[in-house]
Amino acid sequence: MYSPDEQKTLDHLSRQLLAATPPVAPADAVAMAASLGDVIRFHEYRYYVLHDPVISDFEYDQLYKKLQTLEEAFPEARMEDSPTSRVSSDLTSDLPEVTHLTPMLSLDNSYDEADLLEFDRQVRKLTDMGDSPIAYAVEPKYDGGTITLVYEGDRLTRSATRGDGVRGEEITANARTIRSIPLKAEFSRYGIHRAELRGEAIIRKDHFLQINARREEQDLPLFANPRNAATGGLRMKDPKEAAERGLDVFVYQLGFAQDGQGNDQLDQFPTHHQALDTLAALGFKVPAGERTVCRDIHEVVAFCESWAAKRDTYPYEIDGMVVKVDRRDLQEICGYTSHHPRWAIAFKFKARQATSKLIDVDYQVGKIGSITPVAKIEPVQLAGVTVSSVSLHNEDFIKGKDIRLGDTVLVERAGDVIPYIVKPLADLRDGSEQAIIFPTTCPVCHTPLFREPDEAAWRCVNAECEAQIKQRMIFHVSKDAMDIDGLGRSQVERFYDLGWVRHIVDLYRLDYDRIAELDGFGKKSADNLHKAIDKAKANPIHRLLHSLSIHHLGKKASKLLAAEVGHVLELKDWDEERYLQIKDIGPIVARNVMAFFGQPDNVALLEEMEALGVNLTQTEEDRPRAIAADAPLAGKTILFTGTLEKMGRKEAQELAEQAGAKPISAVSGNLDILVVGANAGSKLKKAQALGTVQILTEDEFLTLVSS
Ligand code: IVH
C-alpha cells in the first residue's frame, strides 16, 4: 500500500510535524492539517493493519492531538476524510462483523495535572455545577484488547472486538474460552433481558513471559508485549488456540441494558461505581482494589499519580487511569463528541516507548573484562527520563536483531528495567545504514579479545587493563560489595585520574588531608569519607569476598564460602573437592576462586589489605545462623502469591527465611503456607483445593514472623 520511499517520507514528515509549532495563517493551517492527516493515516495503517507500528503510541497520540487542536482553531482546515472524523478500526480480517448495541467511542487523553484540572473545569461548565466538586470514578486503563459482551436471557450470546466503534468482529467462540467471562449471569434479577458490557481482554505479565518462553522453545516468533498477545488471542481462528493464551477480561462499563419490552434499564444504576459493583456481584471480574471514587478532581490527581508510581508492581500492564464522571445523569448532560465521551478522560502514564536514531556504538569494559556494546542514540524522553545510551548487551544481541548503525530503533523503558532496544525499524532504512563491526581488541588496552565457547561476552583477558582496574575499584566500593558511603564511581575516577589509586588496596591508604583540599570536598567530607572507609574495613568477609570481582563469585556464593572459613586466606589451600563439598557451589565457581587464590599477587594484595586494617576473619554475620527449633516458621515451606502491599517479594522471602521457613516456587502437596497478596489467582485456588495448605494474609504473615 505504501512504497518504501513513501514510508520514509511519511516517517520523516511525522518527525517534522511532531516538532512543528502551530501555524497562525489559515493557509498554513490547511497545509499542515493535510500533512497531519497523511501521516496519521499511514501510522494507523501500520498499527491496525500490519500490527507493526513505526512510532510509539505516545507520538501517535501527539500527532492526533495536534490535528484535533488545529481543526478546532481553523475549522476550514478540516478535511472530509480527516482521521479525527472517525474512530480507529481493527477491522482487517475475515471474521464476521456485528453492530454494537451502542457505538463504542474512544477516550480523550490527558498527561498531567493541568490537563485533568481543565477536564474538570469543562465538566463543571457543561453540567452547570459551578464550584461544586464533581465525584469521579477512577480505574486502571488496561493495556489489552477491547471486548464487548452481549447477554440475552441471562446467557452470553455474543462477543465482539471494538472494530471501528460501530461494528466489530464477532469472536463469541473465543470469548467462551475465557474463564473470567461468565457464560450465565443473572441479569434477570434486575429485570434486564438484554445487556451489553464493555471490557478489556488482557494477559497477566508473568503469564505473558511464560507464553513467550514456550514460543521460544518452539521457535515461534515472540510477542512484543502482552497487548499484542491479547489482541491476537481474541481474534484466533481456532478457539483452542485462543484458550491457550490464558486471557482475563476486566469489565469496565455497562453500556446498554433493556428489559424484554425494550425499556431502558440503566437508570437503576445512578452511578458508574454502582453499575460495576452490580456486575461484580453478577460474577464479572471488575477492577476491585484498583478502583475508587474520588470526591473531587484533586483526589483524582493524587490517585492517578500514586498509580503512576506503582504501575510496575501491578500484575497486568496498564498504560494509564480512566477518569469517569461517576453520576450517570451528569454523564448524560456532558454528552459525546464523535470521538469520545465528554464525561471521561484517560490519564496516560509517561510513554515507555519511543523511536530514535542509532548514531554510534561505544564499547565498555567491565570489571572482569567483558565488553558491552552500548548504543548512542539521539536523546528521547522515555517514562519521564531522557535516554541517550542503551545497552546492546553483546554481539549476539546485535546480530539477532540485525541492528545497524544509522537505524531508526524502537526503544523501551519499562518500570525499573533499564532501557532496551525492542527492534530496528527495517522498513525505514535508506541504504546508508552500516553493519556494526564488533572490535577484535580491547578498546582500552588493545589486548586481543577472547570469548569462552559457552559465554555471550567477548572479554579482555588482561587483568591489568586500566578500564578493568577502575571498574573493579568502582565495584569494590559499591553498595553490593564493601558499601562505602560517599565513595562512588565519580570519586574513584577522580582519585584514579589524580594517580592516587591504582588498585583496590590503595583505597585504604588515601591521604585525607589532600582529599580535604580538593574542590568540592573540604575537611568535613574528607572526615566523613575516612569514617566510612574505617567502618567498611570491619565488614564481614562475605562482603570482602564478593568485592574482589572474582568471575562467577556472586553475593550468594560469597556468603556460602564465608560461612566455611575462619580466615579468607585459608582459601588458598583449598582444592576443588573442598569447594564442591559445599552445597550450591559448583565447579565453575570453584575453579574461578581457585584461580584467584592461586595468583601470588592476589594473596599479597589481601595481606596488604589486612595490614591496613581490613578484616579478613570470619565475623558473627558470616557464620551460618542456626535456625532455632522454636522459630515461628521452623521447618515450614512457604510461597507468596499476588501483589504484596507492605513489602517486596524478596523482602518477604528473607523474613520468612529468618523465621525458619523455606520458600518454594509452586503449590504442591509439599507446601505448608501460602501468603496471599492482592489479585491472587490460580495458586490460591489450587492451594484451597488441596485443603492442606495454611493460607495467610500479608498482615497475618507479618504478625506470625514477628512473634
Ligand atoms: S472506558 C466510552 N475504561 O481504552 C468510554 N476504557 O480509548 C469507553 N480501556 O480501547 C472507554 N481500560 O478498551 C474505559 N477502565 C477502562 C479502560 C478502557 C482500558 C480501553 C478501551 C479502549 C480504550 C479507550
Outline of the structure:
With 707 residues, the protein is of the alpha+beta class.
Description of the molecule:
With 707 residues, the protein is of the alpha+beta class. It folds into five domains: 4-85, Helix Hairpins; 97-348, DNA ligase/mRNA capping enzyme (D-amino Acid Aminotransferase, Chain A, domain 1, 2-Layer Sandwich), CATH 3.30.470; 353-450, Nucleic acid-binding proteins (OB fold (Dihydrolipoamide Acetyltransferase, E2P), Beta Barrel), CATH 2.40.50.140; 466-611, DNA polymerase, domain 1 (Orthogonal Bundle), CATH 1.10.150; 637-706, BRCT domain (Rossmann fold, 3-Layer(aba) Sandwich). 36% of the residues lie in helices and 19% in strands. It has 24 helices and 24 strands. The strands form seven sheets. A five-stranded mixed sheet has the order 2-11-10-3-9. A hairpin with a 5-residue loop joins β12 (353-365) and β13 (371-382). α1 packs across α2, α4 (113-126) runs antiparallel to α10 and α17 packs across α18 (555-562). The longest helix is centred in the first third of the chain and has 24 residues, at 26-49. Bound molecules: 2-(butylsulfanyl)adenosine. Residues 105-107, 139, 141-142, 146, 162, 200, 252-253, 322, 341, 344 line the site of 2-(butylsulfanyl)adenosine (IVH). 2-(butylsulfanyl)adenosine (IVH) is lined by residues 105-107, 139, 141-142, 146, 162, 200, 252-253, 322, 341, 344.
